[in-house]
Every structure is written in C-alpha cells, then in structure tokens.
Amino acid sequence: MDQTKISREDLVERARALIPMLRAEADAAEKRRMIAPKTIAALREAGIFRTLQPERFGGFEYDFGMVVRINSLIGQGCTSTAWVCGLGITHQWIISGFPPQAQEDVWGENPGAITYGSYGPVVEAKPVDGGWTISGSWPFASGCDHGQWALLGARFSGAGADSGAGAGMAPGFVLVPAADYTIHDDWFTNGLAATGSKSIVCEDVFVPSHRRLMFADVMSGNSPGYRASGKPLYSIPMFAGIPTAITTPALGALQGAIDAFIETTRVQKTRGMRSGENVADFAAVQSAIATACAAVDSGKLMFLRDLEET
After folding, report:
1. Are residues 175 and 98 in contact, defined by beta-carbon separation less than 8 angstroms?
2. Can you give the pTM of this predicted structure?
3. What is the rounded CA–CA span in Å between residue 117 and residue 98?
C-alpha cells in the first residue's frame, strides 16, 4: 500500500471516483447485510481510512472538515458504506487518544489496520494483574466484519476510575484484537442493512492496562495520546468531532437522491395534453432541484463552519 501523503484535494477526488462503484454495489450490499470486502479494500487503497490517523503510522493527520468532505461523497454512492466508512475514519482518531503503546499494538505491524466496535459500557471490567478482563456482548458494532481490532465500551471501578471521573464506576474504551472476540450475526433490519451492525462477543478476554482510554479523558480533549503527541487534532473533545461519522451519510444520501432525480428527469418526457415535452425544462422542476441543492449545501457549509470554530 502506498503510504505517501495524499493532498486534501486528491483525497477528495479519490472519494468522488468511488461513487459509481458504490452505487452499483449498494443493492447487493443491503441484501448481503454487509459491505463487500472489495469495497473496504477500495476505501483502504484510496487512503480514506488514513484521514485522521497519526502521520507516524502513515496517516495524513487531516481534520474533521475533511471527514465531512470525503464521507458525504461516499454517502452519495451508498449510505450504508458511508456509515461504516465514517466510523472507520473516526475510530482512527479515537485510537490516537490511547497511550502510545496501544497505538503501536494496533498499527505497529499493520499501519492499515481499521477498528470497529460499540461504545456502550455494557459490562464491568474486572481488575487483574496488569489490566482487566471483560466478558459480554456489545450490540450495534457497525462494520465489525472488517475490523482487525474492536473498540468497546466498559465500566471501571475503584482505581480503574481514577482518570478524572471521580469515585465509583466510570466508563471507558478498551481495544481488543479480532482474534480475541467473536461476531454474533443478529443484524436483520430494513434500513442500513449493509452496515452489518452485528454484536461482538468477548469471553473472559484480558485487556492490558495500556489498552484503556477513559471517556473523561477523550471527552475533555486531554487524552494520553494527546499528552504524548501534543498534536492539536487529538485535543478536540470527542463529541465535537465524532458526529461527523454518522451525520455525513445523510448529507451524502440527500445529494445522491438529487443526483438520481436529475438523471431521471433529464430524459423523462411528459404525457397527456403536453405530451413529449422535457420534464427537465419545467420551471417547477428546476426550482425544486435548486431548493434541494441549496438545503444540502447549506447543511454541509454550516457543519464545516462549526468544525472550523471548534
């Protein structure tokens, strides 16, 4: 894989070039209830998953504005793919908040590794020598079939809750390699079926102490990863950036719907008394398209403005 840093505009154009392939694959992906491995491979080859990854592991260290630009294009091709892609991109940012040793675990031997999971702290981590053990099931792990690691939520007590969260139970993330968990196929839905949001199951899995990141640290922008790197990108509070993963698919879907409507009306003819006229020539149709385009553009621009002010 080429690890040369790609310019912002080139990365955007690579995302745009994927739209026809994503559209062609969308129906099959929904029926399969999973994004095709070849689609994930195409996203990886284009460098999409490196958008927020640290440069020292071959990433581009761009910003969340780039996530908006890139993932809204992916959404024009396939909304489910954009959902999975957005999480794959932004999870690289979350991993960058973990202690350096955890980042080395994930990317040291495989800089192209991607991570999926489920944030809900549904289980309590049990303290043991050198770390914790976890057992349980994490639902809604979108894209989990394609991850080399899982990012899972857990609750920590006692000394495990000492990272700015006060006494008692405190939530945090843990990183678990794919070899240590199984995937339970329980994702049967009508919408976003191709996200493959199945459950991840762990049975008495050991998590070393350096593979934990407390929610309080990543919410405050003062994570171990930021303290080690000093990079401003990794000091952004999590909820100021992570929503780009799950809002941009909607922006892309709206633009994709507009594009499909334009393609249809471009060749559509009227019937009845005005039979044979081009639908695209009707002022009412042109006005409706313009209004829809303005709504999508304004939504994207407001999003980008807010991110610039973060």
Report:
1. yes
2. 0.92
3. 15
